[in-house]
């Protein structure tokens, strides 16, 4: 592939998102028909979306990073899978992804469930990028409802699929009203909801999609991750991006940003804990799924993060 | 008049430039190397040209200072953006080196309901110096970070502070010098 672009010499600066010197794809030349080792379908633009849509998303993402936790509206496009299957996350990933990226997709922590497999195959087909199941090897992680147990690294980007970006929506149906509540930082409604939990159950019963305050300002939904994952949002070295396709909103938590889970002085924020450890890898500090193993009530607890569990078992061997 | 070319590979070049901008804005006051430098019209640096081609299109209003006729024609052709003379409606404001600083608090700063509907500055500067200058903290800073931005107009920082005194309303900026870009969102707390 020839590049006529003049590239000036690089100084010792971080270089991000660089371009491949060679690649299977060129919309302009005969290389378009070269043998690609990955499943690819070049009848689509790179990343499926058209360039105008990507630019709109990119401008939105920059404003989202500049105003942490604030929901930026965007023109959500029709995608080749229905709302609720991660169309918001897919559109964000499509506007971010480049040929150098290594993509990981998880669904409830697992790399091998339908949603994760399909989205990974989709991007393999419309981008021809490398994919991985290893959290540490990925530059871009699209996730539904979990944050990997392996600590995130600086330079990684996590894209969350969000069904309902507005944490106040179940308390106030009107978008005009919730915008005003955010503008005035009027978040008493949410505190009342948490208080009602305490009055009824004796503790805050919200266990996933637990509301957070980003940088001490905007109330935001962390997406339906278990509250076990909320502490990982705080001062994360990775950039966290959230996309809601049906609700047409995106928002961001920049790296090294304060993220507080709402709580009361006498009812502090607590995460889930288990009496048992993972039946497969023995981990005591990962998020466990309960698996029913027969119709006689037998059950086992295993890590929800399949990559974490597998690598622990491989290390132990 | 010969029209200058734009990105050689529009899809990849815009993507690589955008990722650099995203990481620059995510970690403010940390210079990042830009990956691509398109041919630029007279009066526009190649780095700023890359930013404009990455971000501007028919949905955006761009403000250029007077006297950049070639750049205006180039942007109209390649980006198809609206070029506005009223800086108060611009989404992107380009300031070449040594151009007069507009009144920053008059730029679009968004509304309380929609603070994202605000302007982004693209400023050509002389260089960056990590040993001196302003110290920033806030989102994107693991620890306070210092950066000197050389070649800014004398009253830039006082004006910046006034434009960003009412969070979430405010403006955001990218500074470009030769092959590097520095992001500065409205959330950064600055010690001048």
Notes on the protein architecture:
The complex is a heterodimer of chains A (317) and B (192). With 317 residues, chain A is of the alpha/beta class. Chain A has two domains: 260 residues, 3-Layer(aba) Sandwich (Rossmann fold), CATH 3.40.50; 45 residues. Helices cover 25% and strands 16% of the residues of chain A. In chain A, the strands form three sheets. In chain A, strands 2-10-9-6-5-3-4 form a seven-stranded mixed sheet. A three-stranded antiparallel sheet of chain A has the order 8-7-11. In chain A, helix 1 packs across helix 2. The longest helix of chain A has 16 residues. By secondary structure, chain B is of the alpha/beta class. Chain B has a seven-stranded mixed sheet. In chain B, strands 7-6-10 form a three-stranded antiparallel sheet, with no helix packed on it. Chain B is globular, with a radius of gyration of 16 Å. The mean pLDDT of chain B is 96. The chains are: A alpha/beta (317), B alpha/beta (192). The interface between A and B is large, with 65 and 59 residues.
Number of E-type strands of chain B: 10
Gyration radius of chain B (Cα, Å) is 16 Å
* Strand residue percentage of chain A: 15-25%
Q: Give the N-to-C terminal Cα separation of chain B.
A: 44 Å
**How large, in whole angstroms, is the Cα Rg of chain A?**
21 Å
Q: Give the largest chain-chain interface (CB within 8 Å).
A: A-B, 65 and 59 residues
Please report the number of helical segments of chain B.
4
CATH top level assignment of the largest domain in chain A:
Alpha Beta
What ranges of chain B have pLDDT less than 50 throughout 5 or more consecutive residues? none
Short description:
Chain A is α/β, with parallel strands linked by helices. Chain A has helices spanning about 50-65, 85-95, 115-125, 175-185, 190-200, 230-235, 305-315; strands at about 15, 70-75, 100-105, 130, 140-145, 155-160, 210-215, 220, 240-245, 250-255, 260, 290, 300-305. Chain A has seven helices and 13 strands.
């Amino acid at each position: 592939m020839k590049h006529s672009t003049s590239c000036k010499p690089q100084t010792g600066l971080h270089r991000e998102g660089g371009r491949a010197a060679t690649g299977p794809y060129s919309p302009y030349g005969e290389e378009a028909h070269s043998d690609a080792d990955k499943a690819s379908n070049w009848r689509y633009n790179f990343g499926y979306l058209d360039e105008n849509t990507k630019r709109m998303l990119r401008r939105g993402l920059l404003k989202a990073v500049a105003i942490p936790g604030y929901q930026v509206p965007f023109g959500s496009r029709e995608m080749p899978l229905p709302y609720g299957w991660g169309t918001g996350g897919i559109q964000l990933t499509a506007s971010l992804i480049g040929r150098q990226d290594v993509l990981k997709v998880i669904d409830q922590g697992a790399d091998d469930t339908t949603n994760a497999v399909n989205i990974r195959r989709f991007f393999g087909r419309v981008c021809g990028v490398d994919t991985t199941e290893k959290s540490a090897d990925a530059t871009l992680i699209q996730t539904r409802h979990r944050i990997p147990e392996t600590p995130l690294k600086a330079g990684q980007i996590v894209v969350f699929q969000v069904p309902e970006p507005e944490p106040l929506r179940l308390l106030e149906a009107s978008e005009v009203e919730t915008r005003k509540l955010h503008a005035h930082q009027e978040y008493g409604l949410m505190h009342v909801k948490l208080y009602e939990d305490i009055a009824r159950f004796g503790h805050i019963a919200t266990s996933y999609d637990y509301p957070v305050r980003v940088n001490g300002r905007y109330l935001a939904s962390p997406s339906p991750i278990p509250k076990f994952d909320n502490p990982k949002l705080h001062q994360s070295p990775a950039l966290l991006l959230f996309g809601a396709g049906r609700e047409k909103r995106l928002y961001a938590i920049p790296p090294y940003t304060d993220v507080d889970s709402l709580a009361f002085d006498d009812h502090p924020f607590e995460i889930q804990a288990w009496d048992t450890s993972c039946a497969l890898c023995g981990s005591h500090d990962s998020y466990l799924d309960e698996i029913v193993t027969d119709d006689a009530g037998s059950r086992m607890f295993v890590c929800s993060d399949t990559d974490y569990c597998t690598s622990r078992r491989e290390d132990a061997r | 008049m010969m029209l200058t070319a734009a990105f050689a590979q529009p899809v990849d070049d815009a993507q690589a430039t955008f990722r650099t901008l995203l990481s620059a804005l995510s970690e403010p006051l940390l210079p990042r190397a830009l990956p691509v430098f398109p041919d630029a019209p007279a009066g526009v640096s190649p780095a700023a040209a890359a930013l404009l081609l990455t971000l501007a299109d028919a949905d955006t209003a761009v403000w250029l200072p007077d006297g950049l006729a070639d750049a205006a024609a180039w942007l109209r052709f390649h980006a198809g953006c609206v070029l506005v003379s009223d800086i108060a409606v611009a989404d992107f404001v380009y300031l070449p080196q040594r151009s007069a600083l507009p009144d920053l608090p008059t730029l679009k700063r968004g509304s309380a309901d929609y603070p994202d509907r605000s302007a982004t500055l693209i400023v050509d500067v002389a260089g960056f110096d990590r040993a001196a200058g302003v110290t920033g903290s806030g989102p994107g800073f693991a620890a306070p970070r210092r950066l000197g931005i050389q070649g800014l107009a004398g009253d830039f920082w006082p004006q910046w502070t006034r434009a960003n005194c009412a969070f979430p309303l405010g403006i955001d900026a990218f500074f470009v010098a030769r092959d590097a870009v520095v992001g500065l969102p409205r959330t950064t707390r600055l010690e001048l």
